[in-house]
Specification:
The chain is of the alpha+beta class. The protein contains 12 helices and 7 strands. 32% of the residues are buried.
Length: 366
């Protein structure tokens, strides 16, 4: 992943800086009884620093063989330290030849495979460090170094994992945005050509009747199917549902569904309830206006709330009809629409004028 690049460059810089620090320590000849052997260890460290820097720069080589070799070389240099220190190993303040250089594989494991791998590598390096200083009376120093190694492995692994997850999410968001733009482009092209022709055939067929009417009906069905196809939306984040995808199912030759280009995200249960309420409203349209009655569904996001409007051009609802239906035990509107929204903290407004149709407005805080 591209996000790993800065991590590997930082580790390369750390290796070089730690190598310089180890050279300075050995050049002082403090605590090293066999400096010649120490310089041989430094040479191995220098060669591996150069090789590892080049190898880790290639993403295809960042695999277990390289990571294992990195850890093995570091342990070899670390375990050679007692022979370099010789009789001076017990001197106060003496450090192993790799000094801080030994933390490099811990960082590499953490960046590549996360917290657990980083912690495991830190434990292995810490065990080697403890063994190499078994003759020294520096228990507190060893404990501090071990804790620091373990913390570094865990923390760097955690940060690297978060960075990778952020990059994956950004990539998915970019792909979804590109797909949405492409869908919108196709929808525009289809709307300007195929859908308009199908709508014209549907309308003219209904006017002419007979075989032309059947042809118009088939054209209307194909128009509805095509509209639903081009309105398919990408999946919503876990735990939420894009209301547009649920409302699109109601689209047909007699029901027009309109929604914004941006997602209308609601908790899954709330989105299902809103869609069910819209379905109940459309059932009422068919029941009281006829199966071929036209209806329009409009979904939008306004002032922090999702609003869905269902409108028809039927005969309207006579004054007092809803109250009388509830009193007679017919709870279609009272329970299926108003009841659902009341449970979610939403509201339902019904406006109906005899002879001019009915409008049901469902509003739910987003």
């Amino acid at each position: 992943m591209a996000i790993e690049g800065p991590f590997w460059r930082a580790i390369a810089v750390f290796r070089v800086a730690s190598l310089v620090y180890a050279v300075v320590l050995l050049a002082q000849h403090r605590g090293y009884a066999e400096p010649v052997l120490g310089w041989l260890v430094i040479l191995v460290m220098a060669l591996w620093t150069a090789g590892a820097t080049v190898a880790y720069a290639a993403e295809s080589l960042r695999r277990w063989p390289l990571l294992s070799a990195d850890l093995a070389v570091t342990l070899a240099c670390l375990l050679a330290s007692p022979y370099v220190q010789g009789t001076l190993q017990t001197a106060t303040g003496t450090m192993p030849v790799p000094a801080t250089w030994m933390a490099a594989p811990v960082l590499a494991w953490a960046v590549r495979h996360g917290r657990r791998a980083g912690t495991l590598a830190a434990a292995v390096v810490a065990a080697g460090d403890i063994w190499s200083r078994s003759g020294a009376d520096e228990a507190s120093v060893l404990i501090n170094e071990t804790v620091l190694l373990l913390m570094a492995g865990w923390l760097v692994g955690h940060v690297a994992r978060l960075a990778k997850q952020a990059e994956e999410r950004m990539q998915r968001a970019a792909e979804m945005e590109a797909a949405q733009r492409e869908r919108e482009r196709l929808a525009r092209d289809i709307h300007d050509s195929v859908l308009q022709v199908l709508a014209l055939v549907h309308r003219r067929g209904r006017e002419l009747g007979g075989e032309a009417g059947e042809l118009g009906r088939l054209a209307g069905e194909q128009e509805a199917a095509l509209r639903e196809l081009i309105s398919i939306v990408p999946p919503a984040p876990s735990g939420t549902t894009d209301l547009r995808s649920l409302l699109a199912r109601y689209g047909s030759s007699s029901v027009t569904v309109s929604a914004p280009a941006t997602p209308l995200l609601l908790p899954a249960e709330a989105a299902a309830s809103v869609a069910a309420a819209v379905g109940a409203a459309l059932d009422n349209v068919r029941a009281h206006c006829g199966h071929d009655a036209r209806a329009w569904v409009l979904a939008e996001f306004l002032d922090g709330a999702v609003t869905v409007t269902v409108r028809d051009e039927g005969p309207g609802i006579p004054q007092g009809r809803l109250e009388q239906a509830a009193a007679d035990g017919r709870m279609g509107v009272a329970r299926s629409i108003r009841g659902r929204m009341a449970e979610l903290g939403g509201k339902v407004t019904i406006v109906s004028v005899p002879g001019q149709g009915t409008e049901v407005e469902i509003t739910l805080p987003a």
